[in-house]
Write a structure and sequence with these properties.
The chain is mainly alpha-helical. It is built from 9 helices and 3 strands, in the order H-H-H-H-E-H-H-E-H-E-H-H. Strands 1-2-3 form a 3-stranded parallel sheet, covered by helices on one side. Helix 7 links the parallel strand 2 and strand 3. Helix 6 runs parallel beside helix 7.
């Protein structure tokens, strides 16, 4: 790959020197690098392609590694590794003597928590945030968790605990990509499905309603079709 923006990024401090218009072409380069890297070494592809922009945004906004990122499961951290000084080591990913396919504290100061098991990020990040509060450190801690991992009991316990902590600088980011090992079920999945469906058709619904308002039979038909479509997205009780 020809030299580009990605070749100038040796750590997130370099990333934060870029102007915002440069972040989009950087994301394109980073995604291409992930594709080339995984094609050589194997590994998780789709989860990492889905976190390219998110990873850039987090390291651009937060002062990592002082501010801490805690990735749930961790198989989506290839872009994170590339931006935190391990670009040249990606050729050794998941190889004997090479870098890990998951965050590993021994590997980098940017890997704040060793992960692989799902649903542990919020509790780990909360512990870091509370410790920072106790030590009077002005530190942000961010947990990044997917919709599949969010359905586990450990995540709910951590949220329950976080809700009563005062002045703990904790941010939880839900990476709701509708992807998990098996289809997610339950009330939380139903709620997230409702949110997603609302994003996609709310604007179109308003336009259609105004256009079909003059033709009541068509408006009634559209409403019935809408309810059927929602039933496909949102499981019934």
């Amino acid at each position: 790959m020809a030299d580009g923006l990605l070749d100038t990024i040796n750590d997130p401090a370099d990333l934060r020197r870029l102007a915002r218009p440069q972040l989009k072409p950087l994301a394109d380069e980073l995604r291409a690098f992930v594709l080339q890297s995984v094609a050589r070494t194997g590994g998780h592809l789709s989860s990492n392609l889905g976190t390219v922009e998110l990873t850039i945004a987090l390291h651009y906004v937060f002062n990592t590694p002082y501010d801490r990122l805690v990735w749930d499961v961790g198989h989506q951290t290839y872009p994170h590794k590339i931006l935190t000084g391990r670009r040249e080591q990606m050729a050794t990913l998941r190889q004997l003597g090479g870098i890990s396919g998951f965050p590993r504290r021994e590997e980098s100061a940017y890997d704040t928590f060793g992960t692989a098991h799902s649903s542990t990020s919020i509790s780990a990040a909360l512990g870091m945030a509370v410790a920072a509060r106790q030590k009077h450190e002005n530190r942000d801690v961010v947990a990044i968790i997917g919709d599949g991992a969010m359905s586990a009991g450990m995540a709910f316990e951590a949220l329950n605990n976080a809700g009563v902590q005062r002045n703990a600088r904790l941010l939880v980011i839900l990476n709701d990509n509708d992807m998990s090992i098996s289809p997610p079920v339950g009330a939380l999945n139903r709620y997230l499905a409702q949110l997603m469906s609302g994003r996609f058709y709310a604007a179109a619904r308003n336009v259609g309603k105004s256009m079909l308002g003059a033709v009541p039979p068509l408006l009634d038909l559209a409403r019935r079709l809408e309810q059927q479509a929602k039933g496909l997205v949102t499981p019934a009780n």
